Amino acid sequence: MNYEETHNRAGHLVIGGCDVVELVGQWGTPLYVFDEEAVINNIVMYRNALSGLPDYEIIYAAKALLTVGIARFMANHGLSLDVVSGGELYMALTAGFPAEKIYFHGNNKSAAELRTALDVGVGRIVVDNLYELELIADLARQKQKAADILLRIMPGVEAHTHSYIQTGQLDSKFGISIAYNQAIDAIKLAAGMPEIKLHGLHCHIGSQIFELASFAKTIDVMMALMAESKALGIDLAELDLGGGLGIKYVEGDQPASIQDFGAYLQDALKNSAAKYGLKLPKIMVEPGRSLVGAAGTTIYRVGSIKTNQGGRTYAAVDGGMGDNPRVALYQAKYHAVVANKIGQPPEQTYTIVGKYCESGDVLINSIALPRLEPGDLLAVFCTGAYNYAMASNYNAVPRIPIVTVYRGQSDLVVERETYQDLIRLHRIPARWLKNGV
Ligand code: LLP
Fold first, then answer.
1. 278 and 307: one domain?
2. Residues 63 and 139 in one domain
3. Whether residue 243 sits in one domain with residue 301
4. Which of 148, 296, 397, 419 sits most deeply, having the most CB atoms within 10 A of its CB?
């Protein structure tokens, strides 16, 4: 969590050495602020946390936040990239991301997407199902290439998180189920295909996970499966454990630190390796939220404030569910401060709502803040993951810009959309222009 906020003498929030009031003067509101140093620190923490493993790779899960600039930033910092669509792949390649460090995920990749992946030579295609396996084999045969793959396994582990972001339980839409020998049968099938080079297995049990025990259970299931494969003469050298480590959004959230997560994974891996008589495979992790979530802050300007007699006091900001749909979707909770009144004591409890025509457009249900006035700036923390990435143009509200801040300098990563951008793809069929019907 980055909201042990730093502020200057004027009582203004400071992020990455930049006064938020000045940032807003330059870039307007609402504004996503991306704190580079926070991400760099997280990357270093992941490296340190896993450095005891014989071989490992950190793959940034692009779905959390991807733009061409962010792809470039992650490449500069030596990370690999998990993409889930032709669009993410396109952004990454446009940024000059090395194709061999790209992992291509997705439960329903199209033939066109797979062709591109083979043509550009992505590092691994993470195969979700048998239909896709056959499709890739066909495409690889046509191209006279071998496809480097991992098989995504559904390990049957239920992570304790919101049901919408659980993925590892049996009967999930992702991966090949461990039950009824489906996984081992798929491994045998893939290992026998001449066009396919099966390097290992992948799993991902969910997101915003606090309980590390779910990871140990998963590791044990996956290592058992690797041992079963080995007994059949199929040596799998790689195990990708997916992402999922939670972050602290509000007081009371108790995620493990990256350091503890790494130590825990290493213990669990070593235990399972000993139990099944395996040597440790190369380990991959795919963090998204725990790399960029806490590094993002959204700055809004407060507008109307109203108290319903006998009800709540609402403060409305100039953004909302269009730039942050997570509250409406997952009952997500956020913490905020008044960016131009840091250090002032809380005086009133507010419900922070957005400007969208929907009652569910709430950002924070209840928060005590210094007395708000129209024009105040509200900073909502931990919006770096799955906010810009899931933003919409609902109510024809332009999507908001991202600026990155680093040691007192701020630069645009994404420009603010304009009304012209909103209608760029709109057409009026010629018949409708003739006034008649
Ligand atoms: N790897 C795979 C295969 C994934 O499906 C995901 C996330 C990740 C890695 C990264 O997980 P993370 O480290 O960020 O937890 N929109 C939801 C989250 C969906 C996560 C989807 N998959 C939210 O806003 O909470």
1. no
2. yes
3. no
4. 296
